[in-house]
Amino acid sequence: MIALYFLVATSTEEADLRAMWSVMAIVLMILLFYGIRLLELVYAYFCKKPFYVHLYLFPKRLTNEQLFVLQTQFPFYQKLTPRYQAYFEHRVRRFILKYRFIGQQGQPITDEVKVLIAATSVMLTFGMRNYLYTVFTKIVVFPSKYYSAATQAYHIGEFNPALKTIAFSWEDFVAGYQDAHDNRNLGLHEFSHALHFQCAKSHHVSAILFEKMFVKILQELKNPEYSEQLRESGYFRAYAFENRYEFLAVLLEHFFETPETFRNHFLVLYDHIQKMINFRDR
Ligand SMILES: [Zn+2]
């Protein structure tokens, strides 16, 4: 009887001990997770970049047809080293799989349409760890400019968070790449609006950096002399000064299309954008 009691008591103690270790392991894991996150935020504060950007356990591949589009029509991809090209392909594939592409008014959704749209977004966010959006779920493509019943006006592109939609006129999207240095790129422009909205709602390290640098850009604009200098230069089109959102979208178009001129004339702003999206030459 005593032996039986001893056995029962021992197994109960062992079960308690196991439960205690399990709880401690979970608490330690949570502490570790938040500890690393906190460390990364401190690191990002000083170094203006996350601990890491690209880490894919199961990298995805594009189909040969999709890859051909990147190889022949997307200079940003062509200039990457093979390692970064693989990362770029993975992101383009994930992007294509995540969003619903809808062709309107007879616009076909081909591999070219999907890849060039996805690649534009991936180019913009290539230095950021998080590159997929939750602020839209549909990508609507029209053959050319389209009439919007909501605004009662013609558009060539728009980001509509209420409808969780981003829309493009394909004719104008393609025109954005025909002259690579005219500082007009519809795809970059609309994705900049979506990214801005996304980062304002997110708490990951890349979004925090994006927001922090945006505040710095706005602080620069508060200087009347600097603001006047920006307008007077004629480098940024008048539309940039409509509001802060358009200003950022136009800045990002210039950043990708004429980086040398941008850097030479407005180094401080250029530097803020570079840190904002953690852009590095690869
Ligand atoms: Zn805009």
Automatic annotation (TrEMBL):
Protein name listed in UniProt: Zinc-dependent peptidase
One MF term in the entry's GO annotations: aminopeptidase activity
InterPro entries registered for this protein in UniProt: MetalloPept_cat_dom_sf (IPR024079), MtfA_fam (IPR010384), MtfA_N (IPR042252)
Source taxon at top rank: Bacteria
CDD domains for the chain: Peptidase_M90-like (cd20170)
Residue stretches spanning the membrane: 20-39
Keywords of this entry: Membrane, Transmembrane, Transmembrane helix
Keyword Membrane annotated: yes
Keyword Repeat: no
CC per GO annotation: cytosol
